[in-house]
Amino acid sequence: MKKKKVNLRDLKPNSEEQHSHDDGHNHSNPKSVSNLNTYLPAIFSFVMLIVGIAVDYFEAFPHFSGWIRILWYVVAYIPVGFPVVKEGWKNLIKGDVFTEFFLMSIATIGAFIIGEYPEGVAVMLFYAVGELFQSAAVNRAKGNIKALLDVRPKEANVFREGDYKSVSPEVVNIGEKIQIRVGEKIPLDGILLSEKASLNTAALTGESKPDSIQKEAKVYAGSINLESVIEVEVTNKFEDSSIARILDLVQNATARKSKTELFIRQFARIYTPIVVFLAIGVTFIPYFFVDDYIFRDWLYRALIFLVISCPCALVISIPLGYFGGLGAASKNGILFKGASFLDAMTKINTLVMDKTGTVTKGVFKIKEVKAIDWKETEFMQYLMAMEEQSTHPIAKAILEYKSEGEDFEAQDVSEIAGKGLKGIVNSKTVLVGNKALMITNNIEVPAETENIVESIVLVAIDNKFAGYVVIADELKEDAKETIVKLQKVGIKNIMMLSGDKDSITQQVAKELNIENAKGDLLPEDKLNEVEILKNNPENKVAFIGDGINDAPVLAASNVGIAMGGLGSDVAIETADVIIQTDQPSKVVRAIKISRSTRKIVWQNIILAFGIKVIVLILGAGGLATMWEAVFADVGVALLAILNAVRLQKMKWS
After folding, report:
1. Using an 8 Å Cβ cutoff, are 322 and 601 in contact?
2. Recorded E.C. number(s) (predicted)?
3. Which partner from 178, 297, 473, 577 sits 20 to 30 angstroms from 504, CA to CA?
4. In terms of Cα–Cα distance, which of 488, 508, 497, 506 is closest to 542?
5. List 23, 189, 343, 354, catalytic entry
6. pLDDT, tens only, 464-475
């Protein structure tokens, strides 16, 4: 059933106060919902209804009968009933007959026809009040995502013509310099020109801990400057900035419906006309089987049947449940590209992960320095003098070593392809590289180096082996914890695939207690491994990678998860789920949020169907009145919505 929400304020349309919600409902925004004018039609109808019932009950006014009584209840009905009847008529003209508006209109008008005026007004009034509460619930569910939308920067202080000028971020060009004062949001992605900065990236990453960065580091739009005035050189236009892409992703996330949601919407289109024809049957078929058949009584039962049949609880609360899940994930620094991936995540039983940048930091550090017949500091001065001539990541790691004394200077440095460097330092010939370089120069290498699985840099000074430095990538702080938690949530089949040396990959896998690991893999090799896993229909595979080299595997997996995807174009484009921090433990949280969302959605389905079926049977048997019908429709919808809103209050460790 196609259900489009009508707000009571439609009597005075104001398009600026409405926005379209992807499930077909239009809900007023929070400011308009809180506005008293929104509730005035319902308040007016409620007062009229209560006064009318009181006069009926106490018979205080003898003249309150006939046309006066009818007119009174008609006036009470119009503020809440007219928008619904009007919308039902519009849909009827378009050929969309079986809408909720049609059902409510027929049921309440039918109640007037058989003289049940108070009940006719009451049904429409409670329906209208239910709609208002549903609007408020939807707005609360959108709170987390709206908080993210609020980080969109409004202005940028750009340096032009010798001074800083406040302009819209959209008109700032790449390469221009911008200034961000304390407490302001960074309006565009860029490179930090100031010596250092302390930034609050909570809106982007879900982490409240301030992020301290140094000169020439990347900064992202939406971060808040905490300590001092900073300057940034713009590297991306506003529409290409990380925050703009993330906002677009979040705003469009609900466009990708889950299978459950799509099924319910299709089911409602079939279910509603069936109930309408059953209601017709309830009215007329008893004529042929009941001796004391009274048309009015059976019509009343049919009208109750129609009110109960409205699948409001399903059509609203299920999309709201998924929307709540998307919002909760966003608040935790996890972006799902749609409700379909919330569902897919609940089915994952096999997890494949990259090593570098996923469970390790992807930054080389010196693990061990072994100097032979040299003081360590002097040995490192020779090595650092040579590595200053290299741009290799390992060279950068070595240059972070803190040495004492004057720096040495290397001369006549040449690179020997695939082996290392050769040069002169302090009039001594220095060789820096791998074992092949040592063998070529007839340098004897100690046997102990054969057992070292990490990256190793060998050094010879004046044709004599002088020592070595072991370089290793560090595990992330929560890497071990992640594997333990994954096993606890039922992900038993965990595999590591890496392009790094197999010996290093196996060592990292052993540290993390991962039994299945493979190294020395090219991107296509990783893809083949994942395809092999997917060939078994029982395997539902998620792959966690950095979103750049692993793009083919991210795309091929049942669920592709990009780590630290904030600054990665490929991650945002390719992955289904984006972890906005570098914490692999957030993957466990994503699984838990997905399962909580699915659990609440199915609770709502069972609640709605269960109560509706019971009251439908009671209504057909004449044991339920319009009041029970109202509860079965609006009441159950509100209960389901309150259940869905629980997602916003949940905590996942």
Report:
1. yes
2. 7.2.2.12
3. 577
4. 497
5. 354
6. 999 999 988 888
